[in-house]
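Researcher: We're teaching a course module on how sequence relates to structure. For the next exercise, students receive a sequence and then see the predicted structure as tokens, so they can try to spot secondary structure elements on their own. Here is the exercise chain.
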Amino acid sequence: MDAFQYRGNELYCEDVPVAKLAEEFGTPLYVYSGSMIVETLKTLQEVYAEVDPLVCFSVKANSNLGILRLLKAYGSGFDVVSGGELFRVLKAGGDPAQTVFAGVGKSDPEIAQAIEAGVLMFNVESEAELDSIARVAASMGRVAPIALRVNPDVDPKTHRYTATGQKESKFGLDIDRALRIAATVKDKPSLTMIGMHMHIGSQITTVEPYAKAVAKGVELIGQLREMGHPIAWYNMGGGYGIGYKGPEAKPLKEFAAAILPGIKAAGCRLAIEPGRVIAGNAGVLVGRVLYTKQSGDKRFVIQDAAMNDLIRPALYESFHRIWPVTVPPGLPAPPTDYEAAIPGTEPRDVVGPICESGDFFAKDRPLPPLDRGDLLATFSAGAYGMVMASNYNTRPRAAEILVEGDQARLVRRRETLDELVAAEEGL
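Model: And here is the predicted structure for the students to work with:
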């Protein structure tokens, strides 16, 4: 489903006009489609149904409590990478027994917090971390369930900042090292190895890397079982790509077709940790035009949404479609073919008010004429948007709205200036 559609010349989120939300709640504003989030979760549950999957939504993609509660209501588990994310999951009513604790730098207090909560398993990323989990669990008189995170040395063909499954990655363990470490686990009575974990990267748009990775994992699981480890879970991580420009990513059923044979061959239950594919295209960031200007041959559109609200373009040089919320007569919905000429547009840089040259959302992007007060929608902003927002330039973070059908509710209010200094006062 595409939850964001133009009716006439107005952008809607499900059955609610986006302009109406901007008028009521102000800008910058994140708007999410609850129905699209639920539909994608259900699709994942269905395409992997024959191996009884546990879909653990990756909380780092979008940690809003309203969205976590919605996902929990439809049977989602969770993937967390910090004590703060685990706190959010528990606050949202998430089941710790359906929660995986990942991340390369778990602290002792975070490990203790997760053991006390009763998480499903820890994804172990190093020998030193394994020792820490064993030590903390022993001090608590508990046995911690673990899965080794293994790098299958597969190139995921994605951005270098989001590729994680290669041998030299900071994440996980190469296969030889994983086997050596696995041999030591039997000597640690406070640990039980119940799974194996792989996460080869993010925004992966082809199925071949998954097929190669899962095949290596099946062989490794056999070796781990021969050592006496009760491997019941094959956690294939996440990383499924979405269409930022158009339909550049494969359908979820094609990823499943590449992964399922290996899961069945391993005789494991499947865990997956999708984030972007559930939330990414279910959200937009709405900004209001403050000024337009020309400098040399460059035309700029300066809006009130900035890199502190959505840092992906500055950080990854990532592409997001941008289009007016109210489209001028004669122009279509947002283009998906940026190689072809788009009548009625001129190349413009879309920037924010932050005092950084890197504060841009798009460069030389074909856009129609825009005036002060016009609204712009930045699409595919539901994942790695608000979770990466900051208060740089002492800017309050945006409000967030969750839409379901014709109903919209505030799931995070806009920060106030007083809140920006509250932690510093009275000291």
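Model: If you want an answer key for the exercise: The chain has two domains: 4-32+280-424, 34-277. The two ends are 51 Å apart (CA to CA).
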